[in-house]
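anyone seen this seq b4? input:
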Amino acid sequence: MEHTSYNAFVVGNSNDSGNQLDGQSSRGPTPSGRKKPDVVAPGLDITSTSNLNGWWHEDGGTSYSCAHVAGAMLLYLDYIMGAGNSAETFKAILINTVNQPAGSGWNSGFGWGAINLTRAYQNRSYWRTLSVSQGQSVWYKGTMDPNDAAKNRATLVWQSHVSYNGANHPTGYLALSDIDLRLWDYTNNVKGQLITMSESYIDNIEQVQMSSWWPAGQVLVEVHGYWVNGGTEWVTLATPAGFTQVTNPAPARPDFAKETLRKHQGDILESSLHPNYPNPSNPETWIPYTLKEAADVVIEIYNVRGEVVRELKLGHKSPGWYLLDSGAAYFDGRNAAGDALASGVYFYHIKAGDFVATRSLVLRK
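predicted toks r here
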């Protein structure tokens, strides 16, 4: 299930307000750390036909919530989407138009939010399917308003690929591509500060959202292929109305984190481990991260054999962005004994409270 559920729509049973999972639905994340559920829908005290008394009865559970979402999908497919549109297109639009309680972004209590089919219909045309290659960035500019739920976010969705074998079990599973989503200030068509970013290497949904403290205005959405299985990945990006593609507003570069940062906890939707810069390193590099909650932070460096070659104890850190040279973890390319490590691929693993994540780096000398 950990393989196939990438392409499923994971639904949670919520109260009528859609802001809290009922106890009948299990909370995420999954054992591997992936987000669960995707969305929630009402599933309490639902009146349904019954084969017990021949009339009706009241019941509740995730099965009833799934019926809400399945019905929404059928209505959408019948009346909104034309032939040839993909499942991930519907998924991107539906997640991009959910009702989100206070404290926006994904939450284990309500997923990305409660489905809002009216808003999905109103925003049915505001998506595009695009291909992205490894190391490539694709850019779109438009206007966002942090105080308007229909204009304050962008959502990216793609598929996990398997080697199908007819009616039999798939012959293999392909590694999930790692596609990142970033949101930049673009006032006067000038790429400015990094507003926020979404960079999960184990999920195939990314979402960026303007914080309530950021003023409404023109922004730049960047889709970046950090690691792409097979060289090219097709993705669907849902945005507010009026977004158009921009060609190379600024050179894509690995040190994007070295922009001027705004340390505001409301901007951090989740703790994240970001790509190191520079990568490849020669030999020193910086490892940026963000913390949603205060925690003791440790970063371990592993070789390809799974052996810990270095441990970086960063101490107790407050919630915030740790992306600049002065805040990101510094790694000098040496092991615990102070000896220079051999060139090759290494992995860096962060532990910060309940948050854990791993990325790879290339060391060259």
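The chain has three helices and 24 strands. The radius of gyration is 22 Å. kinda curious what u guys think
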